[in-house]
Here is the input.
Amino acid sequence: MSNRDNSIYKEANSRGLKTVSYSQFNLFSSCPYSWYKQYVEKIRIDSKGIDMLFGSAFHDTFQTYLQIYFTKTIREADALDLNKILNENMLKRFKEMAKDGDTSFTTKDELSSYFLDGVDILAYLKRNKQKYFDKSKYELVGTEVPLLVPIDEGINKLAIVSFLDVVLKEKSGPNHLIIDLKTSYMGWKKNKKNDFITKSQLLFYKKYYAKLFNISEKNITTKFFVVKRKVFINESMTFKPGRVQQIEPASGTTTMKKFDELFGKFLKIFDENGQIKSGLIFNKASSKKACTYCNYKNTIHCDRKNK
Ligand code: SF4
Here is the structure.
């Protein structure tokens, strides 16, 4: 995301810290072999596609709106030309993805169609801002809030690094709210909502935000804020479905313990200097489902047959 301050990596480097992120944990959980390819062998095959392009452009645009909304007046936020900002952000992402001259990842029609969806989503969010972002109750801690937190659990030279999309704090209470923005086609279905590794993103944020700022985990709420590009509406509906799905997975003691166990398994591959232990075997994904969107699929980097 362009709103991101990448100086955190320099800081980690200057402190002699290796870093791991939720994305690494997520990748390792679905296919240890692909994690090894990407983060140890450093074989990077950039992901490109309209969903990624739109997702990051939307993030940047909406975060810009929220910054003004919370730190200045609602009038000033509403005066922003969000459609123009979204258009510029999409163009910027397009240029980044097409810098090697390959534009086959999208088409002009697809870009226009996603842009118009973005216009509808932003209009909806502007109309419903008070419902989702109660300015009288919350103040903005930040957008793209960087986290660099050493993991002390026997691993001295390893730290987690993350950027939190939106963090709010109660004005008259100790509670913090961490919001992760997602873009989707028509919202998340049950299997996505129930997937533990997906939910772990918020548990990861909760644990390390609490640790960095010395806040009790009990005072941190987390949620996915999923915006839908399309909503299903038919004439007979008396209630018009909204464009936002808010998902607050459980994050009590039992869930956090389960997360610690899973994340702990990932951390076991590092030694006390944050280096990968020698002699480990990094298996390929146990389910072919994990291969669906893998960049190594059908390349010289993975010989797994995917039909
Ligand atoms: S194609 Fe499948 S098995 Fe091969 S690296 Fe990707 S996820 Fe792993």
